[in-house]
Design a protein that fits this description.
The protein is of the alpha+beta class. The chain has two domains: 89 residues, Ubiquitin-like (UB roll) (Roll); 236 residues, 2-Layer Sandwich (Creatine Kinase, Chain A, domain 2). Helix content is 28%, strand content 24%. The chain contains ten helices and 14 strands. The strands form two sheets. Strands 6, 7, 8, 9, 10, 11, 12, 13 and 14 form a nine-stranded mixed sheet that branches. A five-stranded mixed sheet has the order 2-1-5-4-3. Strand 1 and strand 2 form a beta hairpin. It is globular and about 55 Å long. It starts with a strand and ends with a helix. It binds adenosine-5'-diphosphate and manganese (II) ion (MN) (3 copies). The site of one manganese (II) ion (MN) has 2 residues, from loops.
Length: 352
């Protein structure tokens, strides 16, 4: 009977930075078609999710995509983690996003997440020579040529695989620091956006194995005059995308100002090393929003300001953030019960 290899993927219990884990379940294709993907279990004592004497945790499939590594008919299966009694496991951050996405479904929110990452070979960034450092930043962002680009093979293989798997990828580009890259997920509704980001990360690290390259999501992989790695989170509601939406984008920025530190708390560990006010960031203790400003906390894209509608870009999240927590927090702040500040017009935004 035909067999399907289903790679069950879940987030471990390491905090503040969870990592994906996975293991393979071999299924009969016929049974799979008849009964769907079964629940499964794992040893939570090896992933900081349980004590050894009560180690079983429950895996429940929530999204399946084609496995581009093994090919058809094999699957990648993203799971949520539950306790044996069926209650939500404390490490399961997706459960809260599920509730928030439901509560604000009428807002028709969209997320587009720019995932930056840095390629390493062993303990050294891919672009680093055996001794010393590469030439200073400048020619690397969106560059071409073997003296400027490191790891394109992996970045390309990852893009191709994501598209084969059916993920919604908006694009890729090489970054300001050599050997640093970005892929963009979305725009998608909250749950698919966050799920696809985790699946995209898993695929990237999995393909890195084939290339002998480790992927780092550290916010500041190399100290000094080298750009950090972020996960800019682009956000809109339906009303923001419609004529006159710019006023709602400004209102969202005012709300975000009120809870800046609450957001920073879930925007990734070590982000203070990245949000310094240099290297296209706003300092972690400040909050500013502005049109086209890559030194602001929130950037309103040029086309959004011109059109009077569109989306905002939250530039604060670090590359190692958990998109379940970031998307839930943005929904809560922007779509939740308002503490409404004094409304200011679009003009004040453009002149600030
Ligand atoms: P940047 O100029 O900041 O590098 P990118 O082109 O890398 O921008 O990323 C822009 C992101 O914005 C993409 O992930 C895209 O999916 C997302 N995006 C586009 N339109 C919307 C929208 N209306 N709502 C939310 N996200 C959006
Ligand atoms: Mn980008
Ligand atoms: Mn970028
Ligand atoms: Mn960006």
């Amino acid at each position: 009977m035909a067999k399907v290899m289903a790679e069950y993927i879940w987030l471990d219990g390491y905090r503040p930075t969870p990592s994906p884990r996975s293991k393979t379940k071999v299924l009969d294709q016929e049974a799979l078609e008849f009964r769907g993907l079964p629940d499964w279990g794992f040893d939570g004592s090896s992933t900081e999710q349980a004590e050894g004497k009560a180690s079983d945790c429950l895996l429940r499939p929530v999204r399946a995509i084609k496995d581009p590594v093994r090919g058809a008919p094999h699957l990648l299966v993203l799971c949520e983690v539950f306790n044996p009694d069926g209650s939500v496991h404390p490490s399961n951050t997706r459960a809260a996003l599920r509730l928030a996405a439901d509560a604000y479904a009428h807002e028709q929110a969209l997320f587009g997440i720019e995932q930056e990452y840095t390629m390493f070979r062993g303990l050294t960034p891919l672009a680093w020579p055996a001794a010393g450092t590469p030439a200073p930043q400048g020619p690397y962002y969106c560059g071409v040529g073997a003296d400027k680009i490191y790891g394109r093979q992996l970045a390309e293989a990852h893009l191709t695989s994501c598209l084969e798997a059916g993920l919604t990828i908006a694009g890729i580009n090489s970054e300001v620091m050599p050997g640093q890259w970005e892929f963009q997920v979305g725009p998608l509704a909250p749950l698919p956006a966050a799920d696809e980001l985790w699946l995209g990360r898993w695929l990237l690290q999995r393909l890195g194995e084939e290339h002998g390259i480790t992927v780092s999501f550290a916010p500041k992989p190399v100290l000094g005059d080298w750009n950090g790695a972020g996960a800019h989170t682009n956000f809109s509601t339906r009303a923001m995308r419609e004529p006159g939406g710019l006023r709602l984008i400004e209102e969202a920025c005012r709300r975000l100002r009120e809870v800046h530190l609450e957001h920073i708390a879930v925007y990734g560990a070590g982000n203070e090393q990245r949000l310094t006010g240099a290297h296209e960031t706003c300092a972690i203790g400040e909050f500013r929003y502005a049109v086209s400003d890559r030194g602001a906390s929130i950037r309103i894209p040029m086309f959004t300001a011109k059109d009077g509608s569109g989306y905002l870009e939250d530039r604060r999240p670090a590359a190692n953030m958990d998109p379940y927590q970031v998307c839930a927090r943005l929904l809560q702040t922007v779509c939740g019960e308002a503490k409404v500040g004094s409304p200011r017009g679009a003009l004040s935004l453009l002149v600030r």
